[in-house]
Design brief:
By secondary structure, the protein is of the alpha/beta class. Helix content is 50%, strand content 13%. Helix 1 links the parallel strand 1 and strand 2. Helix 7 crosses helix 9, helix 7 crosses helix 10 and helix 8 packs across helix 9.
């Protein structure tokens, strides 16, 4: 698969997810997002007509019956591999062409899975993220995470905290390093997850 361009289709009801995953993949050499959309109809259409190597399926709300999808004629007749994005991962059945990822999967790990065509994250990618233990998040950084999770821009955050945009960027860089995140999209998902956990008393 490394000798040719890897073709990927994206399925999600969230434009945020579509934009975020596309941006992660667009910077990678040898990868191309060939289609994106929402719903089971588009998933089957892409598998049938586009012939992608992978379909990234946002199934965090478990809206799709993954076992039914994997047994569908469109998937069974093609060589496509389905990357299912869930809240916890490992939510599907025992299908050799199904790969489960979750909110803890980094962009580096996602790219590694696609490049190797493997159903598990290669050790090299895991080691990259485990090189050092994350440092403690400060009170200011925690507030910035919450603001990013609500969609605030750096300019808005700077105004709310009465600091410069440069200071906000420095805090965000520090947060990326401490949480071992790759981009703002991952930080937004992390912030929303923490908010949800707090509301549930976890």
């Amino acid at each position: 698969m490394a000798d040719r361009e890897i073709r990927i289709a994206l399925i999600s009801d969230s434009k945020l997810i579509l934009d975020g995953v596309r941006r992660i993949l667009e910077v990678e050499t040898g990868m191309k997002v060939v289609a994106e959309g929402a719903g089971l109809g588009n998933l089957k259409k892409f598998a049938r007509e586009m012939g992608p190597d992978f379909i990234f399926l946002d199934n965090r709300e478990s809206a799709y019956d993954i076992e039914k999808i994997m047994r569908s004629p469109e998937i069974r007749r093609s060589a496509v591999r389905v990357i299912q994005f869930t809240e916890e991962g490992a939510a599907g059945g025992n299908f050799p062409n199904l790969i489960d990822v979750n909110h803890e999967t980094t962009s580096t790990e996602l790219v590694a899975v696609i490049k190797t065509g493997a159903s598990v994250i290669p050790d090299t990618a895991v080691k990259e993220t485990d090189k050092k233990k994350p440092s403690k998040i400060t009170r200011t950084e925690s507030r910035i995470i919450k603001l990013i999770a609500t969609g605030e821009s750096n300019k808005d955050i700077a105004a709310l905290l009465s600091v410069s945009e440069k200071t906000v960027k420095a805090h965000i860089t520090s947060i990326f390093q401490k949480l071992q995140l790759q981009n703002r999209y991952q930080l937004m998902i992390y912030g929303k997850r923490k908010k949800k956990d707090a509301e549930m008393g976890i």
